[in-house]
Amino acid sequence: MQVPAPFEYERAESVSHAIALLERLGDEARVVAGGHSLLPMMKLRLAAPEYLVDINDLSDELGYITVESDVVRVGALVRHAAMLAHDGLAEHFPIIRDAEHLIADPVVRNWGTLGGSLCQCDPSEDLSSVCLALDAECVITGSGGQRVVPMADFAVGPYQTAVGEAELLTEVRFPIRPGSSSAYQKVKRRAGDWPVAASGVAVRLDGGTVIDARIALTALGVDDAVDATEALVGRPPSEEAFAAAAAIATQVSRPVDDARGSAEYKRHLAGELTVRALRSAVSRALSTTVN
Amino acid sequence: MQVTMTVNGDEVTRDVEPRMLLVHFLRDALSLTGTHWGCDTSNCGTCVVWVDEQPVKSCTMLAAMAGGKRVRTVEDLERDGVLDPVQEGFMQCHGLQCGFCTPGMMMTARWLLDHNPDPTDGEIREAISGQICRCTGYSTIVRSIRWAATHENASHIETAETAGSSS
Q1: Model confidence over B5-46: pLDDT tens digits?
Q2: Domain at A8-54: CATH code
């Protein structure tokens, strides 16, 4: 039987209450939202916090998806299932629906949250790459107010983020950029499993030319967005350009051999999935522009 | 700590350790052993129950987190001696062999049909993709859920026709 080590449980009644609890309880306190990453780690005793602060009652404050003219704001407590189902998100950022459809399984998606996924900061986690590709910003709230951290600076290392001990990730902001689209391509061995590898892409077109492109790789040993500017930006979106970008993705990948596949196979996936994601994102961007 | 929740319509209060998982609370504190405890890693899905009308793997939720919420377990499918169409479907179409995965399968199936009364086989397979059956190869489970979908519709039509003819 897998049971967490003993801890004390507190239930937050508001964001400010959650932060006050975290301040009072100190560095041995952890926030639990959906719990589908933290609780398994606690059951395996990989994590043994002395206090848990449950924020599941904060859906009024943290459970929104708001589409504005130039940004979509998503509260940190929004569940995967809600991200998957939201048409506004899918319209502006099809990469989100691509990725959410393949995260865990439908029952897990009912409880796991956007904020929990990002704060877990697992190198194999899909939404971190999605947010990186979309150039998202994270709103981190503490007793002194809010600060905004670009996704590129959010991950400090595996399982480590820019969120401080007495702070809460409260919102993720996705900028809407005209002429843009996006896609996510992932290979996993079976339903519910972590990815063998995945590639997320966001492109922006202007008059048949790529003016911005962001590529983020999952489970491939790459922390930052892949700089494929040279291959793509200022050029028409052609198969040659996609192949050049894929070559860069393959080159920067640092996968390891494990039960999910060999490093060689994963490097192959880095390139192939990047090409497929680019094709899909460009095709979506072109069809949106025509419409 | 003390935790209070509604389980299958009844309010229950128990003293629990904060680290007690919901699956053990249901099985050990309330003796509701219909909910099974399987892989313990949120992979197999035999522990699926509903919390506030959403299916959840109860091995991956603390009993404390379910405090103040409505929990529904497999014991609540049958009402007044009448099986839920999902239960009837699993009987009619051999949706189980050893039966270990069945409680979770049926709770997910019930939720699916409440939200999508006429699912395709693909939609059924996706809905149960977080649950593992080592006996059936899934085909008879899909068939069982389809049976339930068909017979729910039939019973609704029958009720409507009966109501129409009696007026």
Answers
A1: 999 999 999 999 999 999 999 999 999 999 999 999 899 999
A2: 3.30.43.10
Q: Which of B19, B65, B129 sits opposite A192 (nearest CB)?
A: B129
The CATH number of the structural domain formed by A183-290 is 3.30.390.50
Q: What is the pLDDT of residues A181-232, one digit of tens each?
A: 999 999 999 888 899 999 999 999 998 999 999 999 999 999 899 999 999 9
Residue B83, min C-alpha distance to chain A (Å): 24
**Tokens matching residue B42:** 């949120």
Residue A40 sits at the chain B interface (C-beta within 8 Å): yes
Which residues of B fall within a CB distance of 8 Å from A35?
Answer: 60-62, 65
**Chosen CATH of A63-175 out of 3.30.565.10, 3.40.50.620, 3.40.50.10190, 3.30.465.10:** 3.30.465.10
Q: What is the CATH number of domain B2-76?
A: 3.10.20.30
Task: Give the CA distances from residue A254 to residues A157, A260, A270, B28, in Å, rounded to whole numbers and listed in that order.
Answer: 15, 15, 10, 47
**ipTM metric:** 0.93
Level-2 CATH architecture, domain B85-166: Orthogonal Bundle (1.10)
pLDDT digits (tens, 9 = 90+) for A23-45: 999 999 999 999 999 999 999 99
